């Protein structure tokens, strides 16, 4: 990438591979727990640039029959670069016949205008909302540039037919978003059909699992929610010295 160093992240699981790509250099959402939130947005990536990152990942580890998912979950807000992301999805079948799904992460910025723009082309398309907290004041401190929670919820309900699944991502942080009030709000937010993914904070190359993550998982399940606590994927990533939200660096 001219002037910058960035790349795709190849998350290799037993039954499938996830090729996670950035959509922007820098990010203007400004999440307080993300290194990309510290700097300004440099620019959107073009679809040829994103496809080049996908091709590089597949050159390093050629397809081996496992299904591939293209995941817009690295640096940037894909909804702010939705045309280029859609063009990437259109071109995917020409890169490998093993791609079988697309995933978008979404911060909630401009939810009423932008959520309906996310387009996975011919692929089943998964939506991962970066929820992080279901109480507005707590979320405002974590995700600094986003629509209010009721607007996000209304937009998801309006557009949920576009998505094959909807997941709620929560990076659980000690003393930040892990109170009993946060737990109760999380249990109530959205639909029980939307799984809640509890992820560790990634800081300085290491996972920082929330001390209450196991408790959150069990209480959310008791409340009728599907909750999944992730440690292994994060561990595999950090062992490779790569953070999923690592900012592109100027050379
Ligand atoms: S977590 Fe995602 S949306 Fe938030 S600042 Fe980082 S790259 Fe941007």
Automatic annotation (TrEMBL):
Residues 13-236 form the Radical SAM core domain. It comes from the Bacteria. The keyword Metal-binding applies. Keywords: 4Fe-4S, Iron, Iron-sulfur, Metal-binding, S-adenosyl-L-methionine. Its cofactor is [4Fe-4S] cluster. InterPro entries: Aldolase_TIM (IPR013785), Methyltransferase_A (IPR040072), rSAM (IPR007197), rSAM_sf (IPR058240). The keyword S-adenosyl-L-methionine applies. PANTHER family: 23S RRNA METHYLTRANSFERASE (PTHR30544), RADICAL SAM CORE DOMAIN-CONTAINING PROTEIN (PTHR30544:SF5). This is Radical SAM protein. It comes from Variovorax ginsengisoli.
């Amino acid at each position: 990438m001219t002037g910058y160093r960035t790349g795709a992240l190849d998350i290799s699981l037993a039954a499938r591979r996830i090729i996670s790509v950035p959509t922007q250099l820098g990010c203007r959402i400004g999440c307080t727990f993300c290194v990309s939130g510290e700097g300004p947005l440099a620019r959107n990536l073009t679809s040829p640039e994103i496809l080049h990152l996908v091709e590089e990942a597949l050159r390093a580890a050629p397809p081996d029959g496992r299904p591939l998912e293209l995941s817009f979950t690295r640096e940037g807000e894909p909804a702010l670069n939705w045309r280029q992301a859609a063009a990437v999805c259109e071109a995917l079948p020409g890169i490998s016949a093993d791609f079988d799904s697309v995933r978008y992460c979404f911060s909630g910025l401009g939810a009423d205008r932008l959520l309906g723009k996310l387009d996975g082309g011919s692929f089943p398309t998964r939506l991962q909302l970066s929820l992080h907290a279901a109480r507005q004041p707590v979320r405002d401190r974590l995700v600094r540039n986003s629509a209010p929670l009721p607007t996000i919820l209304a937009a998801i309900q309006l557009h949920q037919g576009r998505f094959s699944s909807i997941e709620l991502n929560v990076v659980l942080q000690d003393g930040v978003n892990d109170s009993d009030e946060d737990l109760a709000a999380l249990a109530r937010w959205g639909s029980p059909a939307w799984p809640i993914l509890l992820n560790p904070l990634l800081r300085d190359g290491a996972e920082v699992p929330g001390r209450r993550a196991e408790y959150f998982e069990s209480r959310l399940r008791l409340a009728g929610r599907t909750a999944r606590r992730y440690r292994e994927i994060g561990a595999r990533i950090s062992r490779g010295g790569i953070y999923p939200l690592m900012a592109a660096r100027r050379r």
